[in-house]
């Protein structure tokens, strides 16, 4: 076929597409404009939610008498059959449709004929897509919560193995004070717990039904939005029809939570990358989570952790994209909003994938307890304990700080660490030091002195582990009570 013939063939196919709004126009939409404006390749991911929302809408239309009950039943059956056939692969999500709504209505017409045209009564694509998106975000909240919980469990599993493993705690990436590895790992547990709680807090704002808002001003027919909401598991209906179709705050919040979760994963990934270097030698990653070099046979690269660190920028960028998309939009719906789903889908997919690989990377890692303990030797990380000792002897802290600082300088110039010091070394700088001060120089003693405010003492870490497990159980309980579509729709679906 010649080039011009191919172009004419494409134009013919484009001009034959049935558009939901075509009656107003003399000319069909150009194929290029259709391609440019089509969202089907993105929003086809909402197919299940679009069908569920349509089932609830059809049930309501039949119950209030806007359409005949038999027609409503026919529409519902057609939608259920379509859902089944998409799930089994009999119907493929492809075509020249403008969006997922057009696809579902077109396919429904294949199943039940012209009665399909009554489904869109008292509904706009504006409140329809807002409903689909909220249903999808609700499912996503659950998926993210489950993925975060698995990551938290991996941290708990490693923490339980390493309650007695000591390593240098850092500030400014310099040795600061000894800590337990379990304590260090649990710090990430609590960061992820905040992400999880943000998801829990977001759920009520997502779980609001916009159906009934129609295009922007509300439906002109006597529908019953309060009936649709519980059918779909929504806890309430929107308070303002204009806000209902234009609100994307919930999407921004979801992407923010993803971005912050990725920041937490990236910080952990960065430490794992550092710890896996020969210079640190604190951790060995399992072969299944490392890659090699195409030229250097000896290499074991922490590429998966590096990718998580890199993909964090993608999700942070998605948040900026979404906020920028929304910042100049007047009320109510604008076609710009079509772009929101690709942004959110990518952010969520990246976060879910990163949580999955990081949880497996962490739980299979081997932490080198001996190397961590050796790193504490000669690092002066128990110096604060000596200052505290002097404080207990009545020395003002600022003076105690200066005394110990001069002691550290003295020992370092002699290539000695605090653990090499004797009582004579200490008394050179203060007569307040007695022999019992030497007991403070061991890291094992240092960590045990830090029992307050969830410190790194063994008793404190064990308490943290107990609290962490309790939080995980609370999350599981919350997930078991997660909102879902009504039993009526489940029965219709045969579940």
Written account of the structure:
Helix 4 (47-64) packs across helix 7 (125-161) and helix 15 (383-392) crosses helix 16. The protein is mostly helical and 495 residues long. It has helices at residues 3-15, 31-37, 40-43, 47-64, 69-88, 100-112, 125-161, 181-206, 225-231, 241-246, 249-275, 303-326, 340-363, 369-374, 383-392, 397-413, 423-427, 443-448, 458-480, 487-493; strands at 166-171, 174-180, 208-209, 236-237, 283-284, 366-367. The radius of gyration is 31 Å and the shape is elongated. Strands 1-2 form a two-stranded antiparallel sheet. The protein has 20 helices and 6 strands. The longest helix is centred in the first third of the chain and has 37 residues, at 125-161. Residues 1-16 have low confidence and may be disordered.
> How many separate helices?
20
Order of helices and strands: HHHHHHHEEHEHEHHEHHEHHHHHHH
End-to-end Cα distance, whole Å, is 50 Å
Structural class: mainly alpha
Query: How are strands sequenced across the largest beta sheet?
Result: 1-2
- The total strand number stands at 6
Summarize the entry for a quick read:
The chain has 495 residues and is mostly helical. Helix content is 61%, strand content 4%.
Set down the secondary structure blueprint:
Layout: H1 3-15, H2 31-37, H3 40-43, H4 47-64, H5 69-88, H6 100-112, H7 125-161, E1 166-171, E2 174-180, H8 181-206, E3 208-209, H9 225-231, E4 236-237, H10 241-246, H11 249-275, E5 283-284, H12 303-326, H13 340-363, E6 366-367, H14 369-374, H15 383-392, H16 397-413, H17 423-427, H18 443-448, H19 458-480, H20 487-493
Parallel strand pairs: 3-4
Antiparallel strand pairs: 1-2, 5-6
Helix pairs in contact: 4-5, 4-7, 4-9, 5-6, 7-8, 7-13, 7-19, 8-11, 8-19, 11-12, 11-13, 12-13, 15-16
């Amino acid at each position: 076929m010649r080039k011009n013939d191919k172009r004419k063939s494409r134009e013919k196919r484009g001009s034959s597409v049935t558009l939901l709004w075509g009656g107003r126009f003399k000319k069909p939409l150009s194929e290029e404009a259709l391609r440019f404006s089509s969202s089907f390749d993105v929003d086809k991911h909402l197919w299940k939610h679009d069908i569920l929302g349509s089932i609830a809408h059809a049930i309501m239309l039949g119950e209030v008498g806007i359409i005949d009950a038999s027609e409503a039943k026919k529409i519902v059956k057609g939608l259920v059959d379509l859902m089944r056939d998409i799930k089994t692969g009999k119907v493929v999500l492809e075509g020249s449709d403008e969006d997922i709504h057009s696809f579902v209505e077109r396919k429904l017409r294949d199943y039940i004929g012209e009665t399909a045209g009554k489904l869109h009564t008292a509904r706009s694509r504006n409140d329809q897509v807002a409903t689909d998106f909220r249903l999808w975000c609700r499912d996503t909240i659950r998926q993210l919560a489950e993925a975060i919980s698995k990551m938290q469990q991996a941290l708990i599993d490693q923490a339980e193995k390493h309650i007695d493993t000591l390593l240098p705690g850092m500030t400014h990436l310099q040795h600061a004070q000894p800590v337990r590895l379990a304590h260090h790992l649990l710090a990430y547990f609590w960061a992820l717990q905040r992400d999880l709680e943000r998801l829990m807090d977001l759920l009520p704002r997502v779980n609001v039904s916009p159906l009934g808002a129609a295009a922007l001003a509300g439906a002109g027919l006597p529908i019953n939005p309060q009936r649709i909401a519980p059918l779909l598991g929504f806890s309430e209906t929107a308070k303002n029809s204009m806000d209902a179709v234009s609100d994307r705050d919930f999407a921004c919040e979801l992407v923010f939570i993803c971005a912050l979760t990725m920041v937490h994963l990236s910080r952990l990934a960065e430490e794992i990358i550092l710890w896996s270097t020969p210079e640190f030698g604190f951790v060995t990653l399992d072969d299944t989570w490392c890659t090699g070099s195409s030229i250097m046979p000896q290499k074991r690269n922490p590429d998966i952790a590096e990718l998580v660190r890199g993909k964090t920028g993608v999700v942070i960028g998605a948040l900026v994209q979404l906020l920028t998309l929304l910042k100049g939009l007047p009320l109510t719906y604008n076609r710009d909003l079509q772009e929101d789903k690709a942004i959110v889908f990518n952010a969520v997919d990246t976060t879910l994938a990163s949580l999955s690989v990081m949880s497996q990377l962490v739980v299979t890692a081997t932490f080198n307890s001996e190397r961590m303990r050796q790193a504490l030797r000669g690092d002066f990380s128990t110096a604060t304990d000596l200052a505290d000792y002097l404080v207990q002897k009545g020395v003002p802290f600022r003076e105690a700080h200066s005394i110990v600082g001069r002691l550290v300088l003295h020992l370092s110039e002699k290539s000695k660490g605090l653990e090499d010091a004797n009582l004579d070394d200490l008394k050179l700088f203060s007569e307040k030091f007695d022999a019992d001060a030497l007991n403070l120089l061991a890291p094992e003693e240092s960590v045990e002195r830090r029992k307050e405010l969830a410190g790194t003492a063994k008793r404190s870490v064990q308490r943290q582990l107990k609290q962490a497990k309790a939080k995980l159980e609370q999350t599981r309980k919350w997930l078991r009570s997660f909102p879902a579509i009504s039993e009526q729709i489940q029965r219709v679906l045969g579940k």
